[in-house]
Amino acid sequence: MVIDESNPAGRLHRILSEVATKNGDGICVRDVWAPVFGCSPKDEASVLRGLVEVYGLCEEVKNLIKLNPDLNHDLYLASFPKIEKAILPVNLGQQWKALRSNLDGEVLARLQFCAEALQGFYSEEAISEEDVSQIHEMVSALSDAITDSSISPELKLALLEELDRIQKAIVLIKIKGAKGLKEALQSLVGSVVANHQSLKQLETDEPDILERLGGLLDKLDAFTARALKLKRMLTGPVSYVLDKITGPDGEEEPVEDD
């Protein structure tokens, strides 16, 4: 069976299949999960955050299955208690071998069927590695430009926080798919709204930053709209967004969402 990894159940199956192969004695939980989240085993905070995201992915799959009245919910979701035991360790230092036993062949097979069932009413476009790499490069370049700029500390901090949020969404894309980047885009647009007056000043003081920011907004919007099969949030670069935010009388106007 070919598993569609662009839907939540497919992503969960891939992740659990990966960790289920790690069955050597002496391996602890943090050593198993850290590579999945692209962090060091010593970074327990990142490992814990990643496990919370995987648990959230489990909840998303369960909710989607329950939304389909034609499915036998008890049958499709029978293995989720065992999955949750595997991803909710008592502590990160405990041995993985005991938890791994929850991810047996039957559990993974049921998850395959969940992925197949979701294909009928839920779909995302496959995520292009080229797109993800381009977004990462755009974020890194903009972050460097902002760090080296002379813009106000308050605006600098606000923008760098949003860029860090996008980078974390990229790291977690194998778990959350394009949805995480969509959330990061929404947060970035909110920051643009909150800081629109300071951003308008960049047209004179730091036009390169404003241009890069507009390009990143446009790229994120196009990418997430295509991947999630949604309307685009924005219809132009950041200069257009700023014009929409501030009306002719200088009063803020709402930015249209999905």
Secondary structure elements and pairings:
Blueprint: H1 8-20, H2 29-33, H3 44-67, H4 73-76, H5 80-87, H6 96-100, H7 105-118, H8 129-147, H9 153-171, H10 173-176, H11 178-194, H12 196-205, H13 207-228, H14 238-245
Helix pairs in contact: 1-7, 3-5, 8-9, 8-13, 9-11, 11-13, 12-13
Distance between the termini: 34 Å
The number of helical runs is 14
Rough outline = globular
What's the mean pLDDT score? 86
Tell me how many strands there are: 0
Structure characteristics:
mainly alpha
Describe the fold and architecture.
The protein starts with 7 loop residues before the first helix and ends in a 13-residue tail after the last helix. The protein has 14 helices and no strands. By secondary structure, the chain is mostly helical. Helix 3 runs antiparallel to helix 5 and helix 8 runs antiparallel to helix 9. The chain has helices at residues 8-20, 29-33, 44-67, 73-76, 80-87, 96-100, 105-118, 129-147, 153-171, 173-176, 178-194, 196-205, 207-228, 238-245. 67% of the residues lie in helices and 0% in strands.
Brief characterization of the structure:
67% of the residues lie in helices and 0% in strands. With 258 residues, the chain is mainly α.
